[in-house]
């Protein structure tokens, strides 16, 4: 393996997350909410529901429905992003839903819907992961019945090195970068989302997944801490 990335641009260790901040209950009008900052990637998630789904013909009498909406604010990126949905935001919304749905006890609220809105107000890579982490936290804050929290982080290969939590600068490394966002259920360690953008060998992927799981575990503990800070429970 050729190593051309000896020291990370921001001085972090290869297996180190960016500085993380999490807080729940930040949107008064929402049933649950959370802010998650990981380095210069910052998102806010708001949850509304469970509430009756309209129009009624969309209701599922067996279980509730989860809807996720990911949005990047115009000022969140250096080059102004045109407001409104894009193919990318539709894809990320779907990834979020798939990453979270299996942890919710949807059968406990038939005919109902839970809406999750995530706004990215500063983007520096890893926004889908920060969105999943924030959304799961906001769902817990809303009291939506769930088995466990989900946390997410990107791992990858930058200049021949396996790294945790890529920045935008790393994603754009001149030697090329491989980006692997992963989402994990806290206690079980079950992976609920995994994407791969770039090239990687099987051995490197194994190493990257281990590192990603380690990152997710750290984020999971921080999620629990953020909930404890509000509810003061175990
Ligand atoms: O954000 P994430 O890594 O999950 O998704 P991405 O599609 O791989 O985007 C990587 C990064 O590109 C974002 O986090 C932004 O920093 C940047 N980006 C941008 O500058 N302008 C856009 N319209 C979309 C993304």
Structural class: alpha+beta
In CATH, the topology is named Ribosomal Protein S5, domain 2
- Summed up, the helix count is 4
CATH class: Alpha Beta
The CATH architecture is 2-Layer Sandwich
Task: Provide the list of bound ligands, each named once.
Answer: cytidine-5'-diphosphate
Which consecutive residue ranges, at least 5 long each, have pLDDT under 50? none
How many distinct domains?
A: 1
What would your notes on this structure say?
By secondary structure, this protein is an alpha+beta fold. The protein has helices at 87-101, 127-141, 168-171, 202-231; strands spanning 20-24, 32-38, 41-52, 65-72, 112-122, 150-158, 161-164, 177-185, 191-194. It has one domain: GHMP Kinase, N-terminal domain (Ribosomal Protein S5, domain 2), CATH 3.30.230.70. The chain has 4 helices and 9 strands, in the order ββββαβαββαββα. The strands form 2 sheets. It has a 5-stranded mixed sheet. The longest helix is centred in the C-terminal third of the chain and has 30 residues, at 202-231. It is globular, with a radius of gyration of 18 Å. The N and C termini lie far apart (45 Å). Cytidine-5'-diphosphate binds next to α2, α3 and β8.
Could you give a quick summary of the protein structure above?
With 234 residues, the protein is of the alpha+beta class. It contains four helices and nine strands, in the order ββββαβαββαββα.
Write a concise keyword list for the protein shown above:
234 residues, alpha+beta, Ribosomal Protein S5, domain 2, five-stranded mixed sheet, four-stranded antiparallel sheet, 4 helices, binds cytidine-5'-diphosphate
């Amino acid at each position: 393996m050729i190593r051309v990335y000896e020291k990370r641009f921001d001085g972090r260790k290869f297996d180190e997350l960016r500085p993380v901040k999490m807080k729940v209950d930040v949107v008064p009008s929402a049933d649950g909410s959370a802010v998650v900052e990981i380095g210069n990637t910052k998102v806010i998630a708001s949850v509304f529901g469970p509430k009756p789904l309209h129009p009624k013909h969309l209701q599922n009498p067996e279980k509730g429905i989860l809807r996720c909406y990911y949005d990047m604010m115009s000022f969140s990126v250096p080059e102004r992003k045109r407001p409104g949905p894009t193919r990318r935001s539709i894809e990320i919304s779907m990834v979020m839903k798939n990453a979270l749905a299996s942890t919710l006890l949807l059968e406990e609220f038939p005919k109902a819907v839970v809406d999750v809105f995530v706004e990215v107000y500063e983007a520096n890579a890893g926004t889908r992961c920060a969105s999943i982490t924030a959304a799961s936290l906001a769902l817990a804050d809303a009291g939506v019945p769930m088995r466990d929290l989900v946390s997410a982080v990107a791992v990858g290969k930058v200049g021949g090195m396996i790294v945790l939590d890529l920045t935008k600068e790393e994603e754009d490394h001149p030697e090329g970068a491989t980006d692997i966002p992963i989402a994990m259920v806290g206690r079980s360690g079950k992976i609920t989302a995994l994407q791969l953008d770039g090239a990687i060998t099987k051995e490197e992927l194994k190493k990257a997944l281990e590192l990603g799981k380690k990152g997710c575990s750290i984020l999971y503990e921080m999620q629990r801490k953020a909930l404890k800070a509000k509810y003061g429970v175990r």
